[in-house]
Amino acid sequence: MEKFSTIISSAVPLPIEEVDTDQIIPARFLKATTREGFGDNLFRDWRYHADDSPKEDFILNNPVYQGQVLVAGKNFGCGSSREHAAWAIHDYGFKVVVSSFFADIFRGNSLNNGLLPVQVSADFLHEIFTAIETDPNTQLKVDLQAQRITIVATGASEQFDIDPYKKMCLSEGYDDIDYLLSQKSKIEEFENQQVAW
Amino acid sequence: MAKTLFDKIWDAHVVAPVNGGSEVLYIDRQFIHEVTSPQAFDGLAKRGLPVLRPEKTVATADHNVPTANQHLPIKEALSRFQVDKLTENCEKFGVQLYGLGHAYHGIVHVIGPELGITKPGMTIVCGDSHTSTHGAFGCIAFGIGTSQVEQVLASQCLVLKRPKRMRITIDGELSPGVLSKDIILYIISKLTASGGTGHFVEYAGSAIRALSMEARMTVCNMSIEMGARGGMIAPDEKTFEYVKGKKFAPTGAAYEEALAHWKTLYTDEDAVFDTEYHYNAEDIEPMLTYGTNPGMGIKISEQIPMVAKVDNPTTYKKSLDYMGLKEGESLLGKEVNYVFIGSCTNSRIEDLRLVANYVSGKQKADNVYAMIVPGSKLVEDQVKAEGLDKIFRAAGFDFREPGCSACLGMNEDKVPKGEYCVSTSNRNFEGRQGPGARTILASPLMAAATAINGKIVDVRKNLN
Ligand code: SF4
Question: Which CATH superfamily includes the segment(s) B1-284?
Fold first, then answer.
């Protein structure tokens, strides 16, 4: 996994709530057996017509909005556990997703793929949406070490939570397998004591 | 100290603490399927790792498989490739596969319980959010992402933070025509699609205790639809009876030993939950969804909520537009052309018996295409043994071979754009059953009644 450091970037606003992973990447695109290439089908049915022509009014098709940060309404990533959703968002070029609320599995999947979910208050989310609406080039600064997200122009900022272990993994580029393999003797010890099923 | 059922099982599986409050949790069983496993095996191969405990993982091909002519090679190239990849990976890594053509083939959450692989007190994971189904046996069972599938393959463990605990108690008696599917749709309509986030749910109360094991699975199955990590029900005599004699259940002295342990699996009287809800079974009616997430549900006697009453009008309107429905409208009498009876929520033998009993001697309406997809080969065999397939066919239903099918429309079983489908599955997301498809979630009885009438009716008014 690549290391995550501070990001300063403009953002793409998606002020829709309850964005489920079937929208992020519809099931019919889950037939690949590698992790790459899912970005092309990110938000497929919101982004393209049935004949593959782009839907002009969808935000990803509006060149005014660019950047490494996706800002979305609450309960982002609900529904299916498909990690393909996190892969698609990351593959498209996003490094951070901001929302006022994330579904649990999506949050975990993101963290396992170097995509940082930043949960902010509903008020701060609103402030970010307003700032982007006023100026599409609004820069957001996401500082993992300080666990802080800032609207650069106004200096308005908010602290965000991240599990200390996950923070370490992200900033060092480690993943859980590296960690779990280091625990092998403890795992075997546990197995020896456990009743056999 | 008084403990919840959840904590008893969790504590018994902690291998080691991790800095910052997470824990290494031991996983007793992993189920895998063709869609969320290839990248995990790929990851193992790249690191040169074996599967640590191959005997603790069981595989099936369900999401992507056709539900007709399963004896023939899969026509669609990408689906075939994915299923072949699973076969190849299972052979290479020594994992048991119940693939197409195997007597135990079926939807992952249907085969685990019916084979006795799922047992009380276990930790169970699968790269699939409806893994919570297995919680009906008093298990900690939950869906994971592909990176975690890889972790379990490599180490039989996961690094996890203990979720909060929620208890939902339903007391009282369900009225005739109201099923366990209605209980869970009712709960989700109350709590919303995110109301359970961060929590693991225990379902309790007399209405839950009264349910059969299969009906309990339907409840636990949809826990994820309110955002919960999982759902569980304390095991009782019904659970023990159900497991007994199943293919992979312990026998003889081993069964007695296991039973003694299973009997300790309940929430202690004084145990404290982070969140509690109480509902009355008498308040539950046949439920229907009208929107694009499972939290958007109403009782059959209710109308679609007014835009002014909701707190996210933009998202709400987008949803109603997609569904082609209006605020204040009733769903009663709505013409529906597609009916899907299947999925890991409602494709077990009891579901199909209920449907057969209802449609027996009736004819589906001319405007309807109705498909019934059994959850597994064993269910299919049982249906045939009981002659239910003849009843289905006589009533004009298409009885197919097992798989996930139109639950997620990854194979050719799709609902056309703009069409309504009353479905016994678990998700009514935009495009879930095919691009542009409009899904109305309901119980198997409501689905059967819709097929017979060609429109939505209150099944309570015309029970056999
Ligand atoms: S039946 Fe539907 S919900 Fe269940 S495992 Fe298959 S795709 Fe998932």
Answer: Aconitase, domain 3 (3.30.499.10)
**Nearest Cα residue to B442 out of B185, B231, B189, B226:** B185
**Looking at the DSSP assignment, which residues form a beta bridge with residue B399?**
B372
Run of H or E residues at B370: strand B369-372
Region B313-335: mean pLDDT is: 97
Mean pLDDT of chain A, nearest integer: 95
Portion of chain B with pLDDT greater than 90, in percent? 98
Judged against a pLDDT cut of 70, whether residue A196 lies above it is answered with no
A195 Cβ partners below 8 Å, 6+ apart?
Answer: B257, B261
Testing ligand 1's pocket by substitution, the residue of B33, B79, B130, B132 carrying the most ligand atoms inside 8 A of its CB is: B130
**Sorting pLDDT into bands at 50, 70 and 90, what band is B442?**
very high
Q: Do domains B1-284 and B287-461 have the same CATH topology?
A: yes
Residue B59 contacts by C-beta under 8 Å, 6 or more apart in sequence?
B31, B32, B33, B37, B86, B90, B95, B96, B97, B98, B99
B127–A83: do the CB atoms touch at under 8 Å?
yes
By CB atoms closer than 10 A (0-12, 13-18, 19+), residue A143 is: middle
**Phi-psi domain of B263 (left: phi exceeds 0; alpha: psi -120 through 50; beta: other):** alpha
Kindly state the tokens that stand for B258: 């296991």
Q: How far is the CA of B48 from the centre of ligand 1 (A)?
A: 31
Residues B1 and B58: their CA atoms lie apart, in Å, by 36
Q: Which residues pair with B328 in a beta bridge?
A: none
CB B181 within 8 A of CB B442: yes
Mean residue pLDDT across chain B: 97
Say if CB B138 and CB A158 are below 8 A apart: no
Q: Does B57 touch chain A (CB under 8 A)?
A: no
Q: Say which amino acid occupies B25.
A: L
Decide: B343 in ligand 1 pocket, CB within 6 A.
Answer: yes
Model pLDDT for residues A69-110, shown as the tens digit of each residue:
999 999 999 999 999 999 999 999 999 999 999 999 999 999
Q: Taking a C-beta distance cutoff of 8 angstroms, is the pair B340, B375 a contact?
A: no
Burial B359-372 (b: 16+ CB within 10 A, else e): beebebbeebbbbb
What three-state secondary structure class fits A122?
helix
Across A64-70, average pLDDT: 97
pTM of the model: 0.95
Per-residue pLDDT of B191-230, as tens digits, reads: 999 999 999 999 999 999 999 999 999 999 999 999 999 9
Instruction: Give the CATH number of domain B287-461.
Output: 3.30.499.10
User: Can you give the length of chain A in residues?
Assistant: 197
Beta carbons within 8 Å of B96's beta carbon, 6+ residues apart: B54, B55, B57, B58, B59, B90
The structural domains of chain B, with segments of one domain joined by +, span: 1-284, 287-461
CA-to-CA distance for B31 and B57, rounded, in angstroms? 6
- Put simply, the chain B residues between 271 and 310 with a CB less than 8 A from any chain A CB are 292-293
Query: In this complex, which of A23, A112, A180 lies closest to B429 when CB atoms are compared?
Result: A23
ipTM of the complex as predicted: 0.92
Angle, in degrees to the nearest 10, between helices B444-453 and B349-359: 30
Residues with Cβ within 8 Å of B332's Cβ and at least 6 positions away in sequence, in order, are B300, B456, B457, B458
